[in-house]
Inverse folding.
């Protein structure tokens, strides 16, 4: 059995650490809206009308996890290309279905997403902002705009939370109804796998905002999807395919490098909330193992002895093993587990 501390005690255990950085997983969104952001809920609300046969694949694999099915399709396509090089139509069909499932996931999240910022209570925002205020950098693997909404709700408290996602008014045309990513800015809020409100316009990455249009962001996102314009999303089935996607996007690549740099110094701590440390995000977790940050805090939701939490603990221990023992200036990695509920992320 591992010790599971309260969030406050876990943070006290690293009180001498100057720089604390947060990595958010899907548990952050599920903690607020479990009826919306679990894979089961998204699966039930996904539109597979363009590829109705893929529902049989979900059933055959006994899963509602989109990324698991995407991975199987991509792996199957690779196998076909090796064993049956002439079966080009089949391999293309498999990859096309994987892309269609990804699009269905995007649309399901947008469809189920809360419509307006005021669908979240002020006291929930206030609690979340108290949690976020602990950290210097915030990295998220989530696609929704809950984090964005929370950071913008500065009227609910007196906290001075510095947040900069690197987006600014386009320098050549500030009247455009969006803001664009400016590479030179020192962002401290990064969407490592993209997000619903980020779009690749070809020559630049743009972000939908309410202030530029007076039109709610979620409405803008749904309108874009109706026009078959899809946001910047990384939901490939394997870590390798996610990494490949990231390397082909200037924004995503720089966000990834920013996380990597936060994992580097020995005096830093990485705090993870709401993530299982699964292999399909190994490209992110590898930064922790390869870095020199001495402290890693990992959230545990519910009974530490549950099968899901045993996997989280095993995955954390694997990162420790990948880091290896202390030698010279190289720090060993110390993992502390904390109770996710005690963080009171949404009150």
């Amino acid at each position: 059995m591992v010790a599971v501390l309260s969030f406050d005690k876990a943070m006290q255990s690293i009180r001498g650490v100057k720089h604390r950085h947060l990595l958010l997983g899907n548990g952050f969104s599920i903690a607020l809206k479990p009826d919306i952001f679990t894979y089961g809920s998204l699966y039930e609300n996904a539109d597979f009308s363009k590829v109705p046969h893929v529902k049989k694949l979900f059933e055959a694999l006994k899963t509602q996890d989109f990324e698991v099915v995407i991975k199987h399709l991509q792996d199957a396509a690779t196998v076909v290309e090796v064993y049956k090089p002439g079966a080009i139509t089949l391999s293309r069909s498999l990859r096309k279905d994987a892309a269609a499932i990804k699009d269905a996931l995007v649309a399901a999240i947008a469809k189920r997403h809360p419509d307006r910022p005021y669908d979240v209570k002020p006291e929930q925002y206030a609690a979340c902002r108290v949690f976020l205020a602990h950290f210097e950098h915030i990295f998220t693997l989530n696609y929704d705009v809950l984090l964005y909404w929370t950071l913008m709700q500065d009227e609910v408290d007196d906290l001075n939370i510095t947040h900069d996602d690197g987006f600014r008014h386009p320098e050549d045309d500030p009247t455009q109804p969006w803001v664009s990513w400016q590479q030179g800015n020192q962002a401290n809020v990064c969407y490592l796998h993209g997000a619903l409100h980020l779009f690749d316009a070809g020559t630049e990455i743009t972000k939908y905002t309410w202030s530029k249009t007076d039109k709610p962001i979620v409405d803008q996102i749904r309108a874009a999807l109706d026009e078959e314009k899809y946001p910047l999303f990384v939901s490939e089935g394997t870590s390798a395919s996610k990494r490949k996607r990231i390397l082909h996007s200037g924004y995503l690549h720089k966000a990834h490098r920013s996380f990597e740099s936060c994992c580097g110094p020995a005096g830093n701590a990485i705090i993870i909330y709401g993530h299982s440390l699964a292999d399909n995000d190994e490209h992110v977790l590898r930064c922790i193992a390869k870095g020199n940050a001495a402290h890693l805090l990992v959230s545990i939701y519910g009974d530490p002895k549950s099968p899901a939490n045993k996997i989280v603990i095993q995955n954390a221990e694997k990162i420790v093993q990948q880091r290896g023992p202390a030698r010279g200036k190289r720090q060993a990695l110390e993992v502390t587990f904390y109770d996710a509920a005690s963080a009171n992320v949404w009150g």
Residues 88-112 form the longest helix (25 residues). Residues 39-112 form one domain.
